[in-house]
Automatic annotation (TrEMBL):
<keyword id="KW-0560">Oxidoreductase</keyword>
<dbReference type="Pfam" id="PF00171">
    <property type="entry name" value="Aldedh"/>
</dbReference>
<feature type="active site">
    <location>
        <position position="254"/>
    </location>
</feature>
<dbReference type="InterPro" id="IPR016163">
    <property type="entry name" value="Ald_DH_C"/>
</dbReference>
<keyword id="KW-0630">Potassium</keyword>
<keyword id="KW-0558">Oxidation</keyword>
<comment type="similarity">
    <text>Belongs to the aldehyde dehydrogenase family.</text>
</comment>
<dbReference type="InterPro" id="IPR015590">
    <property type="entry name" value="Aldehyde_DH_dom"/>
</dbReference>
<dbReference type="InterPro" id="IPR016161">
    <property type="entry name" value="Ald_DH/histidinol_DH"/>
</dbReference>
<dbReference type="InterPro" id="IPR016160">
    <property type="entry name" value="Ald_DH_CS_CYS"/>
</dbReference>
<protein>
    <submittedName>
        <fullName>Succinate semialdehyde dehydrogenase</fullName>
    </submittedName>
</protein>
<dbReference type="InterPro" id="IPR050740">
    <property type="entry name" value="Aldehyde_DH_Superfamily"/>
</dbReference>
<dbReference type="GO" id="GO:0009450">
    <property type="term" value="P:gamma-aminobutyric acid catabolic process"/>
</dbReference>
<dbReference type="InterPro" id="IPR010102">
    <property type="entry name" value="Succ_semiAld_DH"/>
</dbReference>
<feature type="domain" description="Aldehyde dehydrogenase">
    <location>
        <begin position="19"/>
        <end position="477"/>
    </location>
</feature>
<dbReference type="GO" id="GO:0004777">
    <property type="term" value="F:succinate-semialdehyde dehydrogenase (NAD+) activity"/>
</dbReference>
<dbReference type="InterPro" id="IPR029510">
    <property type="entry name" value="Ald_DH_CS_GLU"/>
</dbReference>
Amino acid sequence: MNIKPSTPFPTAALIDGQWVNSPKTFAVLDPATGEKIADVPDLTPEDTKRAIDAAAKAFPAWAAKPAKDRAVILRRWFDLIIAETESLAQLMTAEQGKPIAEARGEVAYGASFIEWFAEEGKRAYGHTIPTTVASRRYVTIKQPIGVCAAITPWNFPIAMITRKVGCALAAGCTIVVKPSEETPLSAIALAKLAVDAGVPAGVFNVITTLDGPGCGKVLTADDRVRKLTFTGSTEVGRILYRQSADTIKKLTLELGGNAPLIVFDDADLQQAVAGTMASKFRNAGQTCVCANRILVQAGIFDKFVASLKEAAGKLVVAPGREATSTIGPLINGDAIEKVKSLLSDAVSHGAKIEMGGKPDDHGALFFSPTIVTGITDKMAIATEEIFGPVASIFRFETEAEAIRIANDTPFGLAAYLFSQNLSRAWRVAEALEAGMVGVNEGVFSNEVVPFGGIKQSGLGREGAQEGLDEYLETKFICLGGISA
C-alpha cells in the first residue's frame, strides 16, 4: 500500500468532511516552554449542532456499509497512523509534554485500537435461540446504536480518541469528538489521517472549543446522539450523566481513580519496584490508573522505600522533546499548585518527604520526582488523585488491613498488588473493589482487554469485545408462522 505523509497537519476543526475555521481562536501552548504552538478555532454550541447534523446525515450509509468494507477503511487509517508515528509523537510531546519515547509508545498503543476494532467489527455476532413454540424461530442481531459523542482528555490525547472512535466506526456508528482544549492538535491530526484513509464526510467530526460546558450541553440534549463516551473527572462525569438523563443516552464514563498498589512481604522486591515505577511515574504521574496510594507491608517497608528512592533517583526531568527525558512537565499551573497543596497538607499532618517535594528548575510546570512516607487516611493526598510525580507510601501490617485501606475510597478504577504467593494474589485480587487489577504488573492496558471501573470511577468498558458491545444494540427478531 502506498502511504503518503500528511504532515504538516491542519489546525482547523472538522465538520462534515470540511476543515472549519472561526474568527475566534485560542492558543495551544507547549507546557515545557509556555510558547504558542498554534491557534485553533474556538467553535460554538451552534457549530456543535452542525457536527451532529453531519453525523446524523452520514449515519445511514455508514451503518449500511458491510463490516468488512468499514474494516478496510479502518485498516488504512491504522497504516497511516503507523506511518506517521514520529510526526504524531512530536506533535503530542509539543502540546502535552510527555517524553518523546512515551509519545511514540502512545501512538503505537492508540493505533492498536484501530487495528483491533477493524477486525472485531466483523465479528459483531448475534445468535439463534432454541424456540419455545414449534411455529416460531428466535434470533438476535447486533446493530450500531447511532450517532455518538466523545469528550476526551489531555493526558492521552491520541489513545483516548482511537479507543473510542475506532470502536464506534467499526460498529457502524458516526461520531462527534470534543477533545481537550489543552491538546486539540493530536485530535485534528488523527482526523486528517482518517480523511486520508477514506472515512466518509460526517462520519468523524472534531469540534475544538473553549466552551466545553456549552458544547457538552448540546451533545447531551440532542436526542439524535444516542451514545456519549467521556474520559475525565468524576465531577464532570456526574454533570454529563445528569444532562443525558432526559434523552436516556447510553453512557461510557471513565472517571477518576484512587488506585492502591499493595506490596506484600512476600513480593519480589525488584519486580515490585519496577512495577511501581512504571505505574507511578509514567506521564509524570498524570494517568487515571496511576498508583495513587502505595501500601507496603511492614516487613519489607524500609527495603522497598530505599530501592524505590534509588530507582526514582535515575529519572531525568527535562522537556519531553529531549531524548533522555523520563519526566516531562505537568499540563498546567493548576496541576502544579494541586501537587504542592497536597504535599503541604501531608507534611503538616506528619508525613515525611524522602526525596524531591519541590518544583524542578527546568521550567514553571516541572516538578521533581517525589517520595513521601508516613501517609495516613487523614491526609488529602490519601483521598484525592495526585496527578503528578509523587509516590505516597502507607505502611500496613496485615493482609486484611491492606484490603481495608485499599477499598476505603468511593473510586474503583485500577488496583495493583505484588506477591509471590499465588493463593494470596488471587484472594486479594478478588477482594479489591476495582474494575482492573494488576498482579505483579504495573502496566496492564492494551487493546484486547476491557478497560473501565466500578463505583464512582465510571460505567461501561472500552477495548476488547466488551468495548464493541458499548456501541451496539441487540435486536431480537421473532419469526412466526413456520409450518412443519
